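--- STAGE predict ---
source: upstream dedup step, 1 unique chain passed
mode: sequence only
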Amino acid sequence: MIANLPIIIFDTTLRDGELTPGVHFSTQDKVQIAQQLEEIGVDTIEIGYPGRYTKDIDQIIAVSQVIKHSTLCALAGSQETEIKHAAKSLEKAEKSCINIYTLVNFNSPSKPFEKNSILSTLKKQISQAKNYCNIVQWTAFDATRGDLKFLCEAVQTAIESGAKIISIPDSLGVALPEDFYHLLQKLYQNIPQLQHVTVSVHCHNDLGKAVENSLVGLELGVRQIECAVNGLGARKGNANLAKIVNKIKSNHNYYTSINSDLIPKISGLISKLIK
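--- STAGE serialize ---
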C-alpha cells in the first residue's frame, strides 16, 4: 500500500446536520459555520437542499459570497427543478458540486421497466447537472439495503454518465462494519471504473457504527468521508468529524487537510448555536 494518501473531508453539518431534531441554522449561522469549516481545512461543505427547502437557496448564495477555497455543495433529487435550484444557488461559488441522490432500494426489483426507468432518470440527472457544474457527485441512497446487482448497474451508469464522485451511504445506519466492508469490496470487484473516480461514504450512527463504517473502506480505495461536526444528523446522527480526523491522523497510511487543533473551536460554536 502506498503510504500517506489524502482523504477528502466532506462536511454535511449545514445540510444533514439540520435534520437533527430541533436544529435550525439561520443564514448568519450558516455563514459563520462555513467560514470556520473552511478555516479548519474542510475540503467540501454541503450547505443545503435548495430543491426542497427554499430558505437554503438564499443561504447557499450567502455562503458562496464568503467561501473561497472549500468546494460548496448542494443536494438535489431526481426532479429537474431540484437540479436547477441547486445550480442557481451555486452560481457565485468559487468551487461547486451538485450532489444528486437516487433511491436504489425500491419495492419491485424484479420489474425490468422500473429498473430501466431509474437508470434512465439517473443518466438524465447527471447529464443535466454537468451543464451547470464541473463536479457532480452521485449518491446511491439506501445502498446497504438494496439489490447488489442493481446497485452495480446504477453505479456504473452514474460513472458512464459523468459523475466524478460516487457516494455509497449507509443511509439508515443499519450496516455492521464487516457487512459494509463486504458491500464496498463487491462494488470494487464488479466495477473496474471505480478506480477512476472518487468513492465516498456517508454513514449514519443508528447502531453506533458510523465512524467505524466510514473508515473500513479506506484500504479498498475510498477517498472521501462525509461527516458532521459533533456527529449531527438525522436520527442518531452522522459520523463525527473530530473522531474521523483523529482516527485518520493515527494511521500513517492516510492524512486529511484538517487542522485538528481548531476542531474544538467549531465544536463549541455548534454547541452554542443549537442550545
